[in-house]
Amino acid sequence: MTEKLDSIIADYRHNEGNLVSILQQLQDEFNYIPQEAVAYISHSLEIPISRFYGVATFYAQFHLKPRGKNIFTLCCGTACHVKGSEKLIERLQRETALTSTDSTTKDGLITIEKVACVGACSIAPVAIVNKKVHGKANINQLLRMVKAMREDESE
Ligand code: FES
Questions:
Q1: Dihedrals φ, ψ of 23, to 5°?
Q2: What is the dihedral of CA 19, 45, 27, 80, to 10 degrees?
Q3: Is the separation of the CB atoms in 115 and 76 below 8 Å?
Q4: Which atom of ligand 1 is the closest one to the Cα of 120?
Q5: What is the pTM of this model?
């Protein structure tokens, strides 16, 4: 982890970066913002740790809790709700034994998250799987993805 963090720090110094870009790089690398990584960077750059958390908690895009290797983000805006997003979520949660409060599988393979409208209502319901947008999502397609992820993991 230290090597990656040193590279983020070097990038910040070289490009006169900002805290958002550091947090974004951390999240890209780890799928969330690890506390120990923030402490390390805060110490190296002599920037108070509170400033990192001030930014991280301001933006909904940042996640402070560990997330799975694969992220299913289901839109729950009005158009997606009308088109059955809640049923997609319930079925996915049943398949992965997750709930709305327990959103990451114990093996760390899958996280299921809900978001408000992502601005693609014309292709509702929308599922974003590992940053790829799937319009008119259906449960068979999502379950096939879960199956493929499990198979990849067990190889
Ligand atoms: S409500 Fe889901 S994209 Fe707008």
A1: -65, -40
A2: -20
A3: yes
A4: 3
A5: 0.81
CA of 133 to the centre of ligand 1 (A): 12
Distance separating alpha carbons of residues 153 and 144, to the nearest angstrom:
14
Q: Ligand 1: which of 73, 74, 75 to mutate, most ligand atoms within 8 Å of CB?
A: 75
55: CA distance to ligand 1 center in Å?
26
Calculate how far, in angstroms, residue 92's C-alpha sits from the geometric centre of ligand 1. Answer: 18
Sign, Cα dihedral of 117, 123, 124, 128: negative
Fold of 70-154: Glutaredoxin (3.40.30)
Q: How far is CA 26 from the centre of its chain?
A: 12
In tens digits, the chain (155 residues) has pLDDT values of 889 999 999 989 888 778 999 999 999 999 899 999 999 999 999 999 999 999 999 998 899 999 999 999 999 999 999 999 999 999 999 999 999 889 999 999 999 999 999 999 999 999 999 999 999 999 999 999 999 999 999 88
Residues spanned by CATH 3.40.30.10 within the chain?
70-154
How much distance in Å is there from the Cα of 59 to the middle of ligand 1?
19
